[in-house]
Structure formats: C-alpha cells, structure tokens
Write a structure and sequence with these properties.
The protein is mainly α and about 425 residues long. It has a domain of about 250 residues. The protein contains 16 helices and four strands.
C-alpha cells in the first residue's frame, strides 16, 4: 500500500472510530438520563421539584438526539470534502475566476468552505433554536432577529474574516520556509487585539449593554472586586433575554477594557447574595490564572501544529491521501483543519478534565470570598431554570463536559462549608 492510500485509510478509520465513540457516548448519556427521569437525586430532592427534573431529562434527551444527527452530518461533510472530492471541486471552480494558488483564489476557497459548513449546520441551528429551545420555553429569538443576526455575522465575517485570510495567506507566501512562525505571531497578536476590542466595538453590535443600575448590588459587586484585586472598566447588564431565557455572567476584555457582564435573565433569577457568589466564581478563574495557564499550553501547541502543517505541505501523500490534487497553501490549510479534529478527538477527555478541574478551583475560590451556601443556592436555581440534567452519564461527562456534574460540584461546596 502506497503512502497516499495508507493515509486515506488512517483518515477513514479515525473518522469512523471518532464518530462511533461519539454516537455511543451520546446514546449512553441520553438513556442514562432517561432511566433516572422519575427520581430526583437525594441531594436535590428538597430544592428541585420532580416536574423540573423530568423537564430537564426530556430537554437533555432531545438535545442529545439532535447532537447525534449533527455529528453524523459533520463526519459526512468531512468525508465529502476530502475523499469525496468536494474540496478539489471548489478549487477547480474558483480557478475559473481567479488564478489558482493566488491570494484571491485562496481567500475565495477558504471562505466558500466556511459558507458550506454554515449551510450544513443551519438546519440543526434552526431545529435547536426554533424547535427544542422554543418547546422548553428558552428561545426568545424571533425569525426576524435570527435573520438580522445572521446578516450581521456575515457582514462581520466579510469585513474581518476576508482580510484576515488574505493576510495569513500573504504571510505564508512571503516569509519563506519559516512562514508558520510568522503566522503564529500574527495569530497571537490578532487574538490579543480581539480581546481588547470585542467588549466595546463588536459585542454591542449584537446586544445592548447598560451599566448596572441597582445601587445596592453594584456596591456589593464593587466591594467584591476590590477584595479580589480585580479592576474593571465597568459592570454591565446585557439584554440576553432578547434571544434566550438562559442566564449567565462573565468577564471579558483585556487590560483597561476588562468588564463584568451579567445577563438580565441571571439577575431576574438570583438574589444579591447569589449574584455575588456567581461573580466570585468567575473571578476565581481570573485569580487562579486559568486564562494565562491555558494560553501557556495552547500557544506552544498552536506553534507546534503550524510547524506540523509546514512539514505536511511538502508531503504529496498528505494532499493525495485526502483527495486533493492541488498542492497550494489554501488547500493545505483547508485539509489540515478538516483532518485536525478527526485525529485529535482522543484528546477530548483530557481537555474536559482540565476544564472541570478549573471549575472546581473557581468554586473553591468563590467559597473563600463569599458564602459557599450562596453559590450552592445559585447553582441549584440555575440547574433548575436552565433545565440542566442532574444525572449525566458518568462516562459521557468525563469525555465531554467542561463543568463537573451537579452532584459532585454541590457536594464539594457543601464540604467546604462544613470545614
């Protein structure tokens, strides 16, 4: 067996194995939740009614079933674009408009792949938003707002994404054999820039942010920020209720642009003590330097991946093994980012474990800065109101969940309260 055929076989096997594992875990998860539908876990029996627990189980089951179909569609798309000849066809079609291998051709090729992916994902987004989310009372999105958001996202993608693709391809063609190092520096710089400009220039294109008006709550938040040594440009409320009934809170930005954001839906559900505890959890990520630690791992990892791509570009079997005759820079980028999730799928439980460990650390920090029982109370309300399952399949949770299961998280906080 020659090298291209061997690589084709490895790709198909990895794609099939990843899809099979994903579907098996989703099946386990859905049926585990369904099997525990009629009994509220003992630790939540006094706080969450059986009807809410059953609603969460049904919501989780429907989302899992849709995720399974989405996974099949994603695998089919990856196969169609590679060994099915889809990427080669797009390459040839754009070659009739722009010179093959040129910047315009490369930008058009990569942009059209993004459009194809969006079109494949669109039916699932519509079912999720206007089917499942609406059926369970979460969706506030109107068809008109959905179309408006889509047009805004498309315009933003054109204004920012197309020049970005052009810049990346220009660097690869102009910086010699070490182009991957310069692309890496450019990409890091771009991400830092986005963190600075996102809160004040991009996010307001989609939502309205108003300063927190509740003077009492604002004073408590500012006191917490001072205790935690966190400086922010302001505390804002976002009109999340325009699109969803789900509640959330986060901090965003970099340097002087850092800001605290509460969803209006969150403030409607929680009292002042609970809001302060939730914010303390978010600040825990900052104080435990989770973002810095993540960047310390992801930055060199992304450099290594770009170096790998630089090597693969010189290997004919990489292109031929994935069904592409052309060996230009844009095709290499496209193939690499189609194949990367296929071969990196086994890392999913490692990354999920890392994320869950960070969540435990943030909870512990919040329990030091506020009362642990306030965070427990807030979490119980959020689990109930967001229809989050209390009984995920343990194996599925270890593989995919970025947050610890509710029972483990609450038990940790309760032990911290009793210590």
């Amino acid at each position: 067996m020659n090298a291209p055929d061997l690589f084709s076989l490895l790709f198909v096997l990895a794609l099939g194995a990843g899809l099979a594992v994903r579907l098996w875990l989703l099946h386990r998860h859905a049926h585990h939740v369904k099997a525990h539908r009629d009994t509220v876990p003992a630790s939540f029996a006094g706080a969450i009614p059986l009807a809410s627990h059953q609603r969460a189980a049904d919501y989780t089951f429907e989302r899992a079933r849709l995720s399974a179909m989405d996974a099949v569609a994603g695998a089919a798309l990856a196969l169609a674009l590679t060994l099915g000849g889809g990427l080669q066809l797009l390459h040839e079609l754009w070659s009739q408009v722009f010179a093959a291998g040129g910047l315009a051709h490369g930008v058009a090729l990569l942009a059209s792949l993004g459009v194809v992916g969006w079109l494949i994902e669109l039916p699932f987004t519509l079912v999720r938003t206007f089917g499942i989310e609406r059926r369970y009372g979460f969706n506030r999105m109107t068809p008109r707002l959905f179309v408006t958001d889509t047009l805004r996202e498309g315009a933003l993608g054109a204004v920012i994404g197309l020049p970005l693709l052009g810049a990346l391809l220009w660097i690869t063609q102009s910086m010699g054999t070490l182009w991957w190092f310069w692309v890496w520096l450019f990409w890091l710089g771009f991400n830092v820039l986005v963190m600075v400009v996102w809160p004040t220039f991009i996010a307001p294109l989609f939502n309205t942010f108003t300063p927190l008006a509740d003077a009492t709550l604002k004073a408590r938040v500012e006191g917490l920020l001072e205790r935690c040594g966190f400086q922010a440009s302001g505390v804002f409320v976002m009109d999340g209720s325009r699109r969803s009934a789900h509640g959330n809170a986060y901090f965003t930005g970099l340097g002087a642009a850092k800001r605290i954001v509460f969803f209006d839906t969150l403030l409607d559900k929680l009292d002042a003590d609970e809001v302060e505890a939730v914010l303390a959890h978010e600040l825990g990520h900052f104080r435990r330097r989770h973002l810095v630690k993540r960047m310390a791992v992801l930055a060199p990892a992304s450099l290594a991946l770009l170096a790998l791509l630089g090597w693969l570009m010189g290997q004919g079997w990489f292109f031929a093994g994935l069904g592409v005759e052309a060996q230009d820079m844009a095709s290499a980028f496209a193939l690499f980012f189609i194949a990367l999730p296929v071969f990196s799928f086994p890392l999913a439980p490692v990354l999920a474990h890392w994320s869950r460990a960070n969540e435990f650390e943030a909870d512990d920090y919040a329990a030091h800065q506020t009362r642990a029982e306030d965070l427990v109370s807030a979490l119980v309300k959020l689990y109930r109101d967001n229809a989050a399952t209390l009984t995920p399949d343990p194996l599925y949770s270890r593989f995919f969940d970025s947050h610890p299961p509710a029972a483990l998280r609450v038990a940790m906080l309760q032990s911290r309260r009793q210590a």
